[in-house]
Amino acid sequence: QVQLVESGGGLVQAGGSLRLSCAASGRTFSSFAMGWFRRAPGKEREFVSAISRSGYNTRYADSVKGRFTISRDNAKNTVYLQMNTLKPEDTAVYYCAAAYSPAAGWVQYEYDYWGQGTQVTVSS
User: Fold this and answer.
1) Helix/strand/coil (H, E, C) string of 49-95?
2) Is 110 helix (H, G, I), strand (E, B) or coil?
3) What is the pLDDT of residues 26-53, one digit of tens each?
């Protein structure tokens, strides 16, 4: 079992930045690829970014490429999502997820554990 707790969400103006964190506990963090997803109001949950368990491979949705950066610190059992140049359309609940696999991507059923989410609101 893995517990995931997101933090770092909040209210920010368009053009601003936030850094989300996801702290993991339970099983060996470095055994899991990690991902970030988001659900905007009235929309389905969608893929944002993923990182392999080594940290060497990353993936991004086209909508965030060049603005968001995913990283992980296996010594701290934490994955991060640095979000820059935020837009109102980035407003969503952001979820982190863990996949017991060397790498994972946009397919949600690849992920075995999910956090409760953290709200990000970008005002125009």
Assistant:
1) EEECCCCCCEEECCCCCCCEEEEEECCCCEEEEEECCCCHHHCEEEE
2) helix
3) 878 999 999 999 999 999 999 999 999 9
